[in-house]
Amino acid sequence: MQKVSLIASGRHHLEHAQRASSGRSAETIFGGHEHRLRQTLIALRAGQSLSEHENPGEATVQVLSGRVLLRSGTTSWNGSPGDLLTVPPGLHTVDATEDSVILLTTVVAQASPPGSPEA
C-alpha cells in the first residue's frame, strides 16, 4: 500500500509551477505506462493551460485548489475546489483561471490483442 498527501504534493508542485518558465509542474501519483489507470497531479499557475489534446480514453479532472476551465469545442465547464469534471471524448483544453492544482485520472483504452475480431 502507498499513501500520498495530495494536499502536500499539490502545495509543493504549485510552488514549483510558480517558479517554472512553463508555469506548471506535474507528477504521476499512480500508474504509468504499464497500467491502464493513471493519476497525475498537475499544478498550473494562473493563466497557464494544458493545450488542446485528445482524450486518451476515459478521464476526469478533480479540482483540489484554485479554479480551472475545461473546454471542448464550443462548450466549457468551470471547476472549483471539490469539483469533479468528466473530460469529454475528443479534443479539449484545461485553463487555470487561478493558481490551481488538479488530479487528472485517466483510463487508457486497452488495445485489442493481435488477431482478435476488434483488431
Short overview:
This protein is mainly beta. It has one helix and nine strands; from the N terminus they run αβββββββββ. The mean pLDDT is 89.
Descriptive notes:
Residues 1-26 are annotated as: Disordered. This is LuxR family transcriptional regulator. The protein is mainly beta and 119 residues long. It is 12% helix and 49% strand. The protein has one helix spanning 6-19, and strands at residues 24-30, 37-44, 49-54, 57-65, 68-72, 75-79, 84-86, 91-96, 100-108. Strand 1 and strand 2 (37-44) form a beta hairpin. The longest helix has 14 residues, at 6-19. It is globular, with a radius of gyration of 15 Å. It starts with 5 loop residues before the first helix and ends in an 11-residue tail after the last strand.
List keywords for this structure.
mainly beta, four-stranded antiparallel beta sheet, 12% helix, five-stranded antiparallel beta sheet, 1 helix, Jelly Rolls
Alpha-beta classification: mainly beta
Helix fraction bin: 10-25%
Sheet having the most strands:
5 strands, antiparallel
Number-wise, the strands total 9
Could you tell me the mean pLDDT? Answer: 89
Overall radius of gyration: 15 Å
| Spatial order of strands in the largest sheet | 1-2-9-4-7
Distance between the termini: 36 Å
Strand content: over 45%
Element-by-element helix/strand order: HEEEEEEEEE
Q: What gross morphology would you assign?
A: globular
Organism: Pseudolysinimonas kribbensis
Region (Disordered): 1-26
Protein name: LuxR family transcriptional regulator
